[in-house]
UniProtKB/TrEMBL annotation:
InterPro entries for this protein: GH, GH_1_N_CS, Glyco_hydro_1
Molecular-function GO terms, alphabetical: beta-glucosidase activity
Full protein name: Glycoside hydrolase family 1 protein
One GO CC term on file: cytosol
Keyword annotations from UniProtKB, A to Z: Glycosidase, Hydrolase
Source organism, top-level taxon: Bacteria
Statement: the UniProt record of this protein carries the keyword Isomerase: no
UniProt record similarity statement: Belongs to the glycosyl hydrolase 1 family.
Amino acid sequence: MSLPKNFLWGGATAANQFEGGYREGGKGLSTADVMTGGTHTTPRRITPKLEEGTYYPSHEAIDFYHNYKEDIRLFAEMGFNVFRMSINWTRIFPNGDELEPNEEGLKFYDDVFAELKKYNIEPLVTISHYEMPFGLVEKYNGWASREVIDCYVRYCDTIFNRYKDVVKYWLTFNEINCLTNKFGSFMAGGILLEDGGELVLNANDDNDSSKQIRFQALHHQFIASAKAVKLGHEINSDFKIGCMIAYMCTYPYTCNPEDVFLAQQRDNLNNFLCSDVQVRGAYPGFAKRYFKENNIEIKMEENDEEILKEGCVDFYTFSYYMSNCTTADKEVEKTAGNIMGGAKNPYLKASDWGWQIDPKGLRWTLNNIYNRYQIPMMVVENGLGAVDKVEDGSIKDDYRISYLRDHIIEMKEAVEDGVELIGYTPWGCIDLVSASTGEMKKRYGFIYVDKDNDGNGDLSRSKKDSFYWYKKVIESNGEILE
Ligand code: BG6
């Protein structure tokens, strides 16, 4: 069982969770910059005006802004040939609606890409990863407004032209399917909902009047993404532009047909609605029915359907952390999850944050998606958020190694099943700020960063046991997993 020779091995990050330098180089304020820290029991808050004395994790994050050379050198040492990162929209257009970009911001990414090139590391760039200019929130309520499409396309035009010879792989929006979730509406959509600024994970979204706003905003992102794909291909026909979905793998809790059907419906709505639009270029029938039954009316302009058809992505990428179950039985115990939870699976163990660990689910997921689309795929996020202890200067994260090993085994099985998998970039290859909780304590990295939840620490980097392990995995193209 072997992976293709040119398989892309690397790691994944997002600007707002690791760059820091939140006011440097002419950068504007982003949605992530107004989100406070939290824990898994205390939700993060949105503070439209920055509060003195409040801790905002994105402001310094792990300061990749000043440490990118050292960090990239460490990635190269592990053998990365791809690195997933995002461009911070507010470095390029600080307020979002300017007509001219900020040169200093563009220059920063010139430098980062040059550094990656030095080590032959291919950048994989997410254009918008859980942040947008806060200026666009104030002016338009984020993606709720159609005006934002033009701002986004101008931003894409700028970065596509600037980096057309150094970046080939692009993703238009991170976890686009999370926008319709209440938690994701601000993080992914920059939408301030009327019911306040507290981000509650796994919120119950049923019968909520804000659904109309959220699905309309999603439509705007679909149009923006399709326009970006078309534009990107015009600028450089070698560009590969993909979608990025938070794949929430869900099983029927029992073989009761009600559970089986509900699980399929959930798979359709949570996972396939967005990729059907982005891969196939049109809304699926089940989405139209869902809109009708939930009084959602998507306002479309005359040529929107054509735009969607003309902007289909070249490849499919997704995040995979866990699975859960779906049941019609309201009494079944619930479990937490990546943005959304579900019914607890009695056969699975969970992380300290309650995310159920399910390597086999990754094989199931890869097959499930590939059966539908038959286009190249990449796992662009996967990993275990865990508490690490530094003992005598070393970090023995065998739990992380075991999580990743088991997932890579299933990934290889899926390739053997016929899935066209081209790359793997585990999440948070260097410790960074957690998106859901704002914590540093929830670590995913191969590289440890000295910083705690309150911002204390000297930001020094050190190699965990998993660093040496992953290096061997990459060197052997996934043959050596011990
Ligand atoms: C994905 C996001 O949902 O999961 C990342 O794309 C995020 O931004 C990652 O960090 C892990 O989630 P968390 O909440 O543990 O940081």
